[in-house]
Amino acid sequence: MEQTTLSQDILIIFSDPLRKRMERILDRPDLSEIRIRAYLPLIIRTLRQEYFLTENGKLSTTDQDVYYVTPDDIRIIFQKISQYSLFAYKEEIQEGFITLKGGHRVGLCGKVYYDGEGRRQMQQISSMNLRIARQLIGCCSPFFPA
Fold this sequence. Notes:
Distance between the termini: 32 Å
Helix content: 10-25%
Low-confidence stretches: none
Number of helices: 4
Number of strands: 7
Radius of gyration: 17 Å
Shape: globular
Structural class: alpha+beta
Strand content: 25-35%
Largest sheet: 7 strands, antiparallel
């Protein structure tokens, strides 16, 4: 079984314009989350700092020449993370997130409607928060000494 890299696991969910800008960013060892909100700048969060993604695919601490997420970006990402089958991911969408290959989670935000039986249904997804799963070797050492 072939092992994939972080960038291979995550790049496939982005729209083409966004994927081209994200290619250089995703292999950062300190990457922790990506905030994707319609009509707002895309934000990259590392373990120490937040950055804006620029139009040319670089990270910046200023909001100049940044990439603004489009509703089409959101639609494409949502289709890809749900593998074009809302029915197959209905339970996860109701919980507010979808887990991707590699353990990465995409939190969803949109309008929530309740059916007549008290169940939630999320529609009109307007933002997403991609949390990057990473292995942290030795993080339990203080609690479970060898």
